[in-house]
Here is the input.
Amino acid sequence: MKTFDELFAELAERARTRPDGSGTVAALDAGVHAQGKKVLEEAGEVWIAAEHESDDRLSEEISQLLYRVQVLMLGRGLSTEDVYRYL
Ligand SMILES: N=c1c2ncn([C@@H]3O[C@H](COP(=O)(O)OP(=O)(O)OP(=O)(O)O)[C@@H](O)[C@H]3O)c2ncn1[C@@H]1O[C@H](COP(=O)(O)O)[C@@H](O)[C@H]1O
Here is the structure.
């Protein structure tokens, strides 16, 4: 189990060290357009899960959306502070 901040730190480290086999590195290399499409795709899956699926499936879809949002943040060079200042 990890928090939003812990996952973001982990993904930032992946971006920095670029380990072989990292899906995050591949997603970052795919560029902002592809990263944005993934955010939209996962958001749609969250919506469907919220209407039709279990709490567990919804939670899983939300976790994937958070991951995709973080990849997009890293793709654009944003930090968590850049976002948190608007919360
Ligand atoms: N939390 C996640 C996470 N959530 C979602 N995903 C990716 O998103 C996919 C699910 O989304 P999709 O519905 O788009 O599935 P898909 O289209 O079949 O997947 P792709 O072909 O696009 O990979 C998963 O198969 C993962 O590839 C994640 N990939 C990685 N993480 C975490 O990120 C960290 C770094 O991971 P790596 O970069 O892979 O080492 C680790 O802690 C991982 O647990």
User: Anything to note?
Assistant: The chain is about 80% helix and 0% strand. The chain has one domain: 2-83.
